[in-house]
Amino acid sequence: MSAKILAIDTSTEMCSVALMMGNTVYTRSAIAPRDHTKKILPMVDEVLKEAGVSLQELDALAYGRGPGSFTGVRIGIGIAQGLALGADLPMIGISTLAAMAQNAYRHTGSTHVAAAIDARMSEVYWAQYQRQDDGNWQVVGQECVVAPSALTQSLANDGITWTQVGTGWAAYSDDFDQLNITCESSTILYPEAQDMVFLAKFALEQGHTVAVEESSPVYLRDTVTWKKLPGRA
């Protein structure tokens, strides 16, 4: 399948866009923690022009669904929804944690990745990922928001060396130094759209897309808050 997919992400300090055209990926990215709204649409225009296509010619639009900065995730999904609605494209939400696992594989060949994004309030967004034979990623356990100190009590050494990705490792290094699993460091701090577009290809091939009105963020920390209260419509 020769996929044509645009991916955007503003969920962390990194602002990035990627366009997959078959086996070619066009990318733009920048560390811009306060300028996402200024940079993301010009980046989209640049990759579309470089590839010589319009939004209407694409198969799907992928976006970083979180977890990450509440504001950043909302900005990304809002812009993605606007673009997808105007071009009548299905949408694909991609985990920022899974995207960092793919980033680690792209840079180092790592097949076992432990992702931790600093979630503030002495917590991290956490997940462990294992690469599958087809190149996709399987989460080990589940994505969660957790205090690093709790991970030191719950994780057992499995004999696997896990590659560290994300901002959480440095933010809570004292706690993470106590982890009972074998880890190796990396320089990967943020998710990037060029890894999201790779993961989106698997989702598209399996028919895992949603309509614009059904696309939604994943905050993890806000799971309870978003539930309807008893007696409310």
Automatic annotation (TrEMBL):
GO terms for biological process: tRNA threonylcarbamoyladenosine modification. Pfam families: TsaD. Signal peptide: none annotated. The keyword Transmembrane helix does not apply. It comes from the Bacteria. It is found in: Cytoplasm. One of its GO terms (cellular component) is cytosol. InterPro entries: ATPase_NBD, Gcp-like_dom, T6A_TsaB. Residues 31-226 form the Gcp-like domain. Keywords: Cytoplasm, tRNA processing. The keyword Cytoplasm applies. Coiled coil: none annotated. Its main location: cytoplasm. NCBIfam families: T6A_YeaZ. Belongs to the KAE1 / TsaD family. TsaB subfamily. This is tRNA threonylcarbamoyladenosine biosynthesis protein TsaB. It comes from Vibrio palustris. The lineage of its organism: Bacteria, Pseudomonadati, Pseudomonadota, Gammaproteobacteria, Vibrionales.
